[in-house]
Amino acid sequence: MKIVIAPDSFKESLTSQEVATAIESGFKTVFPHAEFIKLPIADGGEGTVDSLVAATQGHIEHLIVTGPIGEQIDSFYGITGDGQCAIIEMAAASGLMLVPTAQRNPMEATSYGTGELITSALDKGIRHLILGIGGSATVDGGIGMLQALGVRFMDSHLKDVPFGGHGLERLAHIDISELDPRIHECKIDIACDVNNPLIGEFGAAQVFGPQKGATPEMVERLDRALTNYADVIKHELNIESHYIHGGGAAGGMGVAAKVFLKGRLRSGIDIVIEAIGLEKELNNCQLVITGEGCIDGQTTGGKAPIGIAKLAQRYNIPVIGFAGILSEGAEVVHQHGLDAIFSILPRLSKLDDALYSAGDNLYNCARNVAEALQIGQKLTPSYMSSKEQ
Q1: What mean pLDDT comes out for the span 246-250?
Q2: Residues with Cβ < 8 Å from 361, sequence gap 6 or more?
Q3: Domains of the chain (ranges plus CATH)?
């Protein structure tokens, strides 16, 4: 029997690699001779680097970059095992979690460090980039990232605008002549699972600004600043960017990546599935196991387990999902390819205890599910027939 194990991480508890290992250990106790293929995954957000590095036997590159509030920070990105692709998480250089709560201010936060990660990958000869743009601290339209790559954003006096959303307020001219020419040689996949446009009621400032520390007054200023940004792009580059689907992702990084880098905005889980070669591993597979920290009604909105399940469904392979908890609306996932779902919690417990015991609980739950599957195998048609008489 061939079993593919492709889980996301259990946030604040287990990495996707640790989840896959615990599931394998539980199942191996019952099915010691099965073939297990472990493919830890992520949906394009936090953990994408680790999952793709693990799945492709790649490695991590560490370097110092400019953080969201202008300080020098330790950061990283991944390189796949074949050395051909760099996996970059915007959160690793320009992430909200890098900024203390009291200092969060999207008027000033910059994505410059993300551009420095890209430059490092280019310096190593890599021309395929996967850029995950979740978890950012910025609403700067991605201009910080572009400034690091050589684009100039200037005010009416042809002086470079400052970092952050504040710079977009003063923007009047864009000079792309010094954009790193190696960008034109690249294939760039942007992991983006939101359709929000750059501006307006559902735009970057209105929807995501408050999450990044914006006050109501800042939200209004940022929306006007992003509108100015799109107006200047239209005037200087003759490209319409006000309402690009996904353009508002990561504080407008979606627009920067699509307009200036010519990247493709794609579902994060689709990018990851392609990168790890999951479809190839489904050949001759009898069971797929996936999971994440919480399975609920929102899991169907582009989360990793659904991406895995939909692909397995094409090949009529049953899918089991494990989760720390099953929350409101979890039953809807059965309509999207997850055949059975299980919470790993054996009893009521405090959150800290549940997080601490997650590895053991997952192992035990996986073993019990495997035992149930083994019982099912013993219930042959002849056995069932004799019981029914």
Answers
A1: 94
A2: 344, 345, 346, 354
A3: 2-39+277-388 (3.40.50.10350), 48-268 (3.90.1510.10)
